[in-house]
Amino acid sequence: MTQTLTPQDTLVTVTPAVSIIESKDAYLVSLDIPGAAKDRIAVNVEQQSLHVTAEVPAAGEEAGKQYRRQFTLADDIDPHSADARYELGVLTVTLRKKEQYRPKQIHIQ
Questions:
Q1: What domains appear along the chain, each with residue ranges and CATH number?
Q2: What is the spatial distance between Cα 56 and Cα 83, in angstroms, rounded to a whole number?
Q3: In this structure, how many other beta carbons lie within 10 angstroms of the beta carbon of residue 14?
Q4: pTM over 0.85
Q5: How many CB atoms are closer than 10 A to CB 31?
């Protein structure tokens, strides 16, 4: 029986599943990145783009994975307000809306 050997450092590029939820104050972008360590995940906001990358090393016969996803940010997003949390294989990035785009309730006198 012949087996093809693949280098352990080979990474398979994966596009993570995503869900985007809009609230009155922010957008929540959730990406499925199972098996990644927090220190192997990068979240960057550049101009009007959100870039997410992560690496999961090879395990046994399973090849390593490199997750990549890029989003164009809407004009109503404040790029400096971005924050992220990673829990149970899901990365959630919160992008707050600029103040002038948030709904405002007017008090009636």
A1: 11-98 (2.60.40.790)
A2: 22
A3: 15
A4: no
A5: 25
Kindly state the tokens that stand for 11: 């990474």
Listed in order, strand segments (DSSP E) in the chain are 11-14, 18-22, 26-32, 41-46, 49-56, 64-72, 83-87, 90-96
Angle at 12 between CA 41 and CA 28, to 5 degrees: 40
**Contact, 97 vs 78, CB < 8 A?**
yes
CA-to-CA distance for 63 and 24, rounded, in angstroms? 41
Task: Report how far residue 99's alpha carbon sits from residue 101's, in angstroms, rounded to the nearest whole number.
Answer: 5
Instruction: Give 77's DSSP letter.
Output: B
Per-residue pLDDT reduced to its tens digit, 13-66: 999 999 999 999 999 999 999 999 999 999 999 889 999 999 999 888 888 999
